[in-house]
Design goal:
Number of strands: 11
Order of helices and strands: EHEEEEEHEEEEE
Helix content: under 10%
Largest sheet: 7 strands, mixed
Mean pLDDT: 80
Structural class: mainly beta
Strand order of the largest sheet: 1-2-5-6-9-8-7
Length: 218
């Protein structure tokens, strides 16, 4: 199992100083580290956008790239990260996109602190709380559990509309994202995939989001 502590990325400060001192209009991407690509893959020039009730239609590209992204593992073991002690957030949006060599799912959050995560392949999707089966398209299912989460009525922040699955349009391995629910401090979503492949999970800030990258099948 891979475990990391959710913390602010040091590259944020460095990039912010460079942009402030001598950046030009071509470096206007938002996010923790501007438009830098992940160390293990470069982003596609024509990524897919989200659609459906829960998606905003904003591509999971540009400011979601980071030079501090961890390398892809050689296996499909669970990936976990700890929430900050003051984490009290709400998931506000879910976005998908296709990049060179992998598909990306971004969970945008708002609130206090930074969330933790537990992402792993599961044999079937079961709703937290009720235990009912959740239909998910694909031959493999990644369960994404975000911790340090509060109910929208407690955080005062509108939660993502999960009334319909978010299709992975243009993606190669991700089929769709199905929102489950928020329950007792955690929010759960299921990511359908065509097969089990290696994946990585990491945190970006300003704004805060949890990024899931899933390697394309070979």
């Amino acid at each position: 199992m891979r475990t990391r502590v959710a913390a602010a990325l040091p590259a944020v400060v460095a990039v912010a100083l460079v942009v402030a001192c001598g950046g030009n209009g071509d470096d206007s991407d938002t996010g923790a580290t501007g438009s830098a690509s992940p160390s293990s893959a470069t982003s596609s020039s024509a990524p897919a956008t989200t659609s459906g009730a829960a998606g905003s239609g904003t591509p999971a590209t540009g400011g979601d790239d980071s030079t501090d992204a961890p390398p892809f593992p050689a296996n499909t073991e669970p990936d976990t990260g700890q929430a900050s002690a003051d984490s009290f957030v709400t998931v506000t949006d879910i976005r998908t996109g296709r990049h060179d060599g992998f598909d990306r799912v971004v969970f945008d959050v708002a609130g206090t602190g930074t969330p933790g995560w537990d992402v792993r392949f599961v044999p079937e999707a079961r709703s937290q709380g009720s235990g009912n089966t959740v239909p998910v398209e694909g031959d493999a299912i990644l369960q994404v559990t975000l911790s340090g989460v509060g109910y929208p009525t407690e955080t005062g922040i509108d939660e993502v509309d999960g009334s319909a699955p978010i299709p992975g349009q243009g993606t190669e391995v991700v089929t769709e994202v199905v929102w489950d629910t928020t329950f007792e401090g955690t929010s759960v979503a299921f990511v359908g995939a065509t097969e089990r492949t290696p994946f990585r999970v990491y945190l970006l800030e300003s704004p805060t989001r949890v990024v899931l990258d899933v390697v394309h099948p070979r």
